[in-house]
Design brief:
Distance between the termini: 28 Å
Radius of gyration: 18 Å
Structural class: alpha/beta
CATH architecture of the domain at 7-30 and 67-78 and 123-285: 3-Layer(aba) Sandwich
Strand content: 15-25%
Number of helices: 7
Shape: globular
Length: 290
């Protein structure tokens, strides 16, 4: 069963936190197990998309919604995996996965408009100069790959709406770190951001709560509009404290007053199952400019 929480109420009850400007986010108490099982009303398709980069070919996994029409026009949600994971942690061409099942259910129920989901990786080919680098470097360098290679490949291969207002980027854990870097570097290509379970690491790990981070993010946002950030985590997630501190400082900046939204899943932990629940809270909100 789904309930809509006022974020101020949730945060106040659980953590004596801060008010969030703008509208409330719908946060489900938990997903029904059936929401993550195959959908009888219609299933999408997952396929592999090879794309070229300066340092060799890479692949992304692409989910196409039920009744995908190659002559249609679809918004695109880019979703990045966490540390120790791959795109196959969320999608698989050979079988249904919880995330693709969830999308099938929400789309066929009419809760979420049909969309294309792209799951890439920040990992790089052997001949890339960043090969062997730590995840901090790999996530920071990914926005250039996204804008130079992946987005053009997706737009050339599928029936997308090829503009920033119809692109969203999110991710779990290190994928959320990547999402913050995309915000900092590629706001001209993407308009909606969904970092789940991590603060921004541009000034160091777990350092998102410093005032300098809020200034850095505010400066990046100053010349681009519109945009939205839906930041989510769980009350039992080890990433919650630095993420909450970062959001609190960001909320003080005028540029984020009506563009930043924070959601807290009361039972959430730092795991994929919680990420599905938190992501489900914003699937219907991903493309407010459509």
């Amino acid at each position: 069963m789904r309930r809509t929480f006022c974020l101020l109420t949730v945060l106040g009850l659980l953590l004596s936190c801060f008010p969030v400007q703008g509208a409330s986010l719908p946060v489900p108490e938990s997903l029904s197990p059936a929401d993550l099982l195959p959908c009888d009303a219609g299933e999408g398709k997952t396929e592999i998309l090879p794309y070229a980069t300066d340092y060799g070919e890479k692949e992304a996994l692409v989910y196409l919604p039920p009744a995908y029409d190659p002559e249609g026009a679809y918004p695109v949600f880019y979703w990045m995996h966490g540390g120790g994971e791959t795109p196959y942690s969320f999608l698989n061409p050979a079988r249904s996965m919880p995330l693709s099942n969830l999308l099938d259910h929400r789309i066929t129920q009419g809760d979420v408009p049909p969309l294309i989901l792209v799951c890439p990786t920040y990992d790089v080919p052997v001949n890339n100069p960043h090969y062997g680098a730590g995840v901090d470097t790999l996530t920071e360098q990914f926005p250039e790959e996204l804008t130079r290679f992946l987005i053009p490949a997706v737009d050339a291969s599928y029936a997308t709406i090829p503009d920033r207002l119809h692109r969203a980027f999110g991710g779990f854990s290190m994928g959320a770190v990547t999402a913050w870097y995309v915000f900092l570097q590629s706001l001209d290509a993407v308009s909606v951001f969904v970092p789940v379970s991590s603060d921004c690491w541009a000034l160091g790990r777990r350092n998102g709560g410093c005032e300098e981070m809020a200034d850095l993010l505010s400066d990046a946002a100053a010349d681009e509009a519109p945009f939205r950030i839906y930041a989510l985590t769980g009350a039992h997630d080890f990433a919650m404290d630095p993420m909450r501190d970062q959001i609190e400082n960001m909320e003080k900046r005028e540029v984020f007053r009506h563009t930043l939204f924070f959601g807290l899943f009361p039972e959430g932990r730092h795991d994929r199952e919680s990420a599905y629940t938190e992501l489900d809270a914003v699937l219907s909100l991903l493309f407010p400019y459509s």
